[in-house]
Amino acid sequence: MRLVRDLVNFIARVFLHKDCVDYYISDEENLSGTDLLHKQLIFLISQGKINEAEDLLFEAMDVDNPKYLEVAIDFYNRLNEMEDEFLEENNFSRQEIEEGLKEVIRIFGINI
Questions:
Q1: What is the pTM of this model?
Q2: Are 38 and 73 in contact (CB under 8 A)?
């Protein structure tokens, strides 16, 4: 849990130059591709469809757009803050959170 939190904060500060790891939609009237993806991920998480959400994240990811990195770290940070019981009920584990985040880091070519 702490490793994921530390990785997320490190990526936000060093690579995104942000103090906050949360993804924010700045214009609800004109949603970007990453805004729509973020909304879909939040909805799927709320429905307990975490594996489906993670699959969607990796399918949609564009390594040439840092906003996708921002969406990804927000996604794994949100999962990391979930209760173990919720994760277990929805067939997801803390190990999968860590592995998924590390895969995102690898895909974006970030060397830590």
A1: 0.93
A2: no
